[in-house]
Design a protein that fits this description.
single chain; 473 residues; mainly alpha; 19 helices; 6% strand; globular
Length: 473
């Protein structure tokens, strides 16, 4: 590196206000990402699915038993809470719940970093980075991952408290929060592996501790079983299938990721790398943190989190990985921050990510305005043909219209609001009754004509999108 450049950079960094400026810039980014979905409350495909499931539950149907889904209920109950007060609440209320969960993730992350990052300003900077990256990775929509991640982070925070105080009761709460993470979304369960590895290496594995950990884990599972089994006859084996995501029968795939091709995965990976550009420093400074006390739990959590990517490569699946990227960065910063070269590279890479994220947040105001306008116009025109509260199956366009148009499932148990592609046309036709509707993209029509009898057709063109509405006679 040029000595003049390094000297200039060192002069700039010697000003204590530099980290304050970075905090302010990140707070601006947090504000922009938070404000965007409040001004433009857009329902994504996932949002439409999760909120439609939540609406069914808060309308009195029993989760799993009467509502078919592969997803565990805790996050769906949480984001769907506004349905308690209104049958059709403003989407912003659900978005606010999701946003506050993300803010709590940042707070818990800050407290975790107290255990291995001595620099207060950098604990704040990395916590703000976590909030920004959670919003960027689909957190501006209604998704399940933030609540699952929050409970993962709480379980790690309690683990650090256990090591400080060695009070065995903490192990019960570690298991308890692992279970809550799992019940928010099944992928949250991976955190149990790094926690067990850490306990083993700290010589804390014994029968008493295992019993406390297991007791904490099983308590929420028992409570949920009793809740679901009230006035029902739900067998335990069937319940276990449900919470493992195996209770809802699909014709194709496991419920996620079948539409992603190689180039889509490559694009998502590129977006994750540029928004987390600091990760390129890890190979060069990894040796400096290997022997630190917290390295095992952080590194094992990072590798365990990557198992989620086996199932799908969406941006919101990377949410499980990002907290552990940032924890690893916290370890690296704590050991290397006095190194002038490291500081230069760190600020340079954070700068690249910052301007990418800033650009994304600003463009989102224009893009989401256009998308929301299109979504509202499509919903209005679809409701002109298919009344609200009609029983509908959607194939070829976004499942967001289940929510936007206030549609119901043709069969909440066996079809539910499943994403297009996971159930065959013959399965859909089997559960489609007289007076119920199919809303299809034009290219799907020939597939359903082979399995349907006695129906009426209506063709629609909305902003150049060719649709077909089928009504079973």
């Amino acid at each position: 590196m040029s000595k003049k450049l390094l000297k200039l950079f060192d002069l700039f960094m010697s000003n204590n206000k530099t980290s304050n400026i970075l905090c302010i810039l990140l707070l601006l980014l947090v504000f922009l990402f938070f404000l965007n979905p409040i001004i433009y409350p857009l329902a994504s495909a996932d949002s439409g699915y999760f909120l439609s499931i939540a609406r069914e539950f808060f309308n009195g149907k029993k989760y799993f038993i009467e509502i078919g889904t592969i997803y565990n209920p805790l996050a769906i109950f949480t984001i769907g809470f506004p349905f308690t007060f209104n049958s059709n609440p403003d989407l912003r209320y659900h978005i606010l719940i999701n946003s506050f969960i993300i803010f709590f993730c940042g707070i818990v992350f800050y407290n975790i970093c107290l255990n291995f990052l001595s620099k207060k300003k950098w604990r704040l900077i990395l916590s703000l980075m976590l909030i920004v990256l959670m919003f960027y990775n689909d957190g501006r929509y209604i998704i399940l991952e933030p609540l699952s991640i929050l409970f993962q982070l709480i379980s790690l925070l309690v683990l650090f408290q256990f090591y400080k105080g060695l009070r065995s009761v903490y192990l019960f709460f570690i298991g308890f929060f692992i279970a809550l993470s799992f019940l928010s979304k099944q992928f949250g369960l991976f955190i149990i592996l790094p926690i067990l590895i850490s306990l083993f290496l700290e010589n804390k594995i014994n029968l008493r501790n295992i019993f406390l950990l297991f007791s904490g884990f099983i308590s929420p599972l028992i409570f949920l079983y009793l809740f679901l089994n009230y006035n029902s006859n739900l067998h335990i084996a069937e319940y276990l299938k449900y919470i493992l995501g195996l209770g809802f029968k699909l014709d194709v795939g496991n419920g996620t990721g079948i539409e992603l091709d190689f180039y889509s995965k490559l694009l998502f990976l590129a977006l994750v790398i540029i928004s987390n550009f600091y990760t390129l420093l890890f190979p060069f400074y990894f040796r400096s943190i290997v022997k630190t006390k917290s390295a095992v739990i952080v590194i094992s959590s990072l590798f365990a989190s990557m198992t989620v990517l086996y199932f799908a490569f969406y941006l919101h699946y990377f949410l499980y990985v990002i907290p552990y990227f940032l924890m690893l960065m916290a370890l690296v910063i704590d050991k290397n921050f006095e190194n002038k070269n490291f500081k230069f590279y760190l600020f340079s890479m954070l700068g690249i990510s910052y301007f990418f994220l800033l650009s994304n947040s600003l463009r989102a105001f224009v893009n989401r305005a256009e998308q929301l306008k299109l979504q509202n116009e499509m919903a209005t025109k679809l409701n002109f043909v298919v009344p609200t509260n009609s029983k509908v199956y959607i194939d070829g366009i976004s499942p967001s219209y289940y929510y936007s148009c206030n549609f119901r499932s043709i069969d909440s148990k066996f079809v539910s609001y499943s994403f297009p592609g996971y159930l065959n046309e013959a399965t859909i036709a089997k559960y489609l009754n007289s007076g119920e509707y199919l809303i299809l993209s034009l290219n799907k029509l020939s597939l359903y004509e082979k399995v349907l009898q006695k129906y009426t057709l209506k063709y629609l063109s909305i902003h150049g999108i060719q649709l077909v509405v089928i009504k079973k006679v």
